[in-house]
Design brief:
The structure holds 2 protein chains of 2 kinds. Chain A has 6 helices and no strands. In chain A, helix 1 packs antiparallel against helix 2 and helix 3 runs antiparallel to helix 6. Chain A is globular, with a radius of gyration of 18 Å. Chain B is α+β, with helices and mostly antiparallel strands. The radius of gyration of chain B is 24 Å and the shape is globular. Chain B has an 8-stranded antiparallel beta barrel with strand order 1-4-5-7-6-3-2-19. The longest helix of chain B has 32 residues. The N and C termini of chain B lie far apart (51 Å). The chains are: A mainly alpha, B alpha+beta.
Chain lengths: 166, 384
């Protein structure tokens, strides 16, 4: 029964994670202008410039869904204790926050202050720099990431609680 | 519970976790493509957020041998050419302002400067982007190269000026952002942008002068692209007027508005006129058409710069390209490109002069330097 409950929980978490990722993908397909994501061919993006169909939510929703999805996906493949559950949530939140914060103008200023040519010699660093300069720092994304991590924590907590009670 | 964990070895579990983390990071980075594009008004099509830029030789059917832009200045002349390979880079378009700005110059691309002075002043140069040049903001300055390296190589230079390979590396100098100059890998010094730009006109060592000159050649070429983006913006903004046969007329900055008396022989306020030529005759403004920009003693006042410019002459913009993806309603390619001879293409200048003005005495502007432009290049923005 315990094994079945665990399997049930695992697939439940994976399903929720995939649903969240799909939700994020739809935001990019329907609400964002063509060429706004490297991973999505521009011709698939139907959104026009200016306010999208989701309004302001279109800007922060992908951040919420992304951290939520990847926390659940990670939890689906590990058997977390109460402390490691928190650790996984904090870990993903940290990763997402770092990628958001490197889009902040202050970080770009810092990058600009590095000795010229130095960054260009580090493999992958230029791609990261392009990510940083190509994106727009949005404080709302930080809030969305926090809520996404909390939502994932609560979802997992409920899943394990339900698993135990069944 | 034992069965749940027992089915996974530690290695497999670790691998899966790493794959999930990698997927997470890839999707974070991949979800960013530089933001949205700006609208472009009348055409109903919008700009993408990012465009690749290609600056190529402009084919002048009458004389391909002198293709490029020739700059004449006091005591000499130099031609800037990109033949045979294009100079490549990327522009980012702001979603709100619809202004597109250079964001990088690709590595591995070349530019040639031919010293056509008699006798030669600096000799012929080959300029190569050796590490991708990123344009950004630094030290309170915006739109400056902040990372990257260019190499200036002397080719058949006059005696005493053959400096071999000179590397210009973007750097942060003690006084602010600038460049390190290396002469055959020996560091000559770190110069802030203002100092670096002035090196060519000073008694600096030849390698430093060439470095400054070489960089100015690249800047010059991208200034031509800025002129093109300005014209493209006007075309978009006034498409209906142009199609109706109305030329777009804009008054330039007036010296009197800046509290200055115009230089002797120069009107207080000049003008520029852009007209449409239906070279692909269908009565509609579209691909294959030409534009003519007639600029009459047009003073361009840059309040942030002591030196301003009076533009005068004719710029022709041949073979307009505008590819629109009708489904997405986005512009996938735009610019002015060369086509096979004998049809001219690209942006060309004839009898065009740029006169630099300075406030030499309080309230009076004087022309301090005049350069002439002839020839042209092809400029095309395309979807990455």
């Amino acid at each position: 029964v315990g094994y079945q409950a665990a399997q049930h929980r695992t697939w439940g978490l994976i399903a929720l994670a995939l649903a969240a990722l799909l939700g994020g993908l739809f935001v990019y397909l329907l609400d964002r202008p063509a060429g706004s994501a490297y991973l999505i061919p521009a011709f698939l993006q139907l959104g026009r410039n200016g306010p999208g169909i989701l309004g302001a939510a279109g800007s922060w929703l992908p951040s919420f869904l992304h951290v939520y999805a990847f926390i659940l996906l990670t939890l689906a493949f590990v058997r977390p204790t109460r402390s490691s559950l928190l650790l996984i949530c904090m870990g993903w939140l940290s990763i997402e926050l770092v990628f958001e914060l490197i889009q902040h103008p202050a970080f770009l200023e810092f990058l600009a202050g590095l000795p010229g040519g130095w960054l260009a010699r580090i493999p992958g660093a230029m791609m990261l720099r392009e990510y940083a300069t190509g994106g727009v720092f949005d404080p709302l994304d930080l809030v969305a990431l926090g809520f996404g991590a909390v939502a994932a924590y609560l979802t997992a907590h409920l899943a394990w609680k339900e698993g135990k009670s069944s | 519970m034992r069965q749940e964990t027992g089915s996974w070895s530690v290695f497999k579990r670790f691998t899966v976790l790493m794959a999930i983390v990698a997927a997470g990071i890839i999707t974070i980075v991949g979800s960013n493509g530089g933001g949205g594009g700006g609208g472009d008004g009348d055409t109903g099509s919008e700009l993408l957020a990012t465009y690749d830029i290609s600056i190529e030789r402009g084919v002048d059917g009458s004389d391909t041998a002198t293709d490029g832009i020739t700059v004449t200045f006091e005591g000499g002349a130099a031609s800037v050419r990109v033949d045979p390979n294009p100079l490549l880079g990327q522009y980012m378009c702001d979603q709100t302002t619809e202004i597109c700005e250079l964001s990088r110059i690709n590595p591995g691309t070349f530019l040639y400067v031919y010293d056509e002075s008699t006798p030669q002043i600096v000799g012929d140069l080959v300029i190569q982007i050796t590490a991708q040049v990123i344009i950004g903001d630094s030290g309170g300055m915006s739109g400056i190269p902040i990372i990257g390296t260019i190499q200036v190589q002397s080719v058949a230079a006059p005696a005493g000026l053959d400096a071999g390979f000179i590397d210009v590396e973007m750097a942060t100098c003690p006084g602010g952002p600038g460049v390190n100059i290396y002469d055959n890998t020996t560091l000559l010094g770190c110069y802030t942008w203002d100092t670096f730009e002035d090196l060519f006109d000073t008694s600096a060592v030849p390698a430093e002068q060439l470095a400054s000159f070489g960089f100015q050649a690249i800047s010059f070429l991208f200034e031509q692209v800025d002129n093109v983006t300005e014209v493209l913006h006007l075309i978009d903004q006034y498409e209906d007027d142009l199609e109706g046969g109305v030329a777009i007329t804009e008054m330039c900055d007036a010296f009197s508005n800046a509290g200055l008396a115009a230089p002797v022989g120069t009107p207080d306020q000049g003008m520029r006129v852009l007209s449409w030529i239906d070279d692909n005759p269908d009565g509609q403004l579209g691909p294959g058409d030409d534009f003519e920009g007639t600029i009459t003693e047009c003073w361009v006042n840059d309040p942030s710069d002591d030196i301003d410019e009076i533009l005068d002459g004719t710029g022709n913009f041949y073979n307009y390209v505008e590819n629109v993806d009708q489904f997405r309603e986005v512009i996938t390619a735009i610019g002015f490109t060369a086509v096979a001879p004998p049809n001219p293409g690209g942006v060309t200048y004839s009898g065009f002069t740029i006169s630099e003005t300075e406030e030499t005495s309080p309230g009076t502007a004087e022309i301090t330097n005049v350069i002439g432009l002839t020839g042209g290049v092809s400029v095309l923005f395309t979807e990455p």
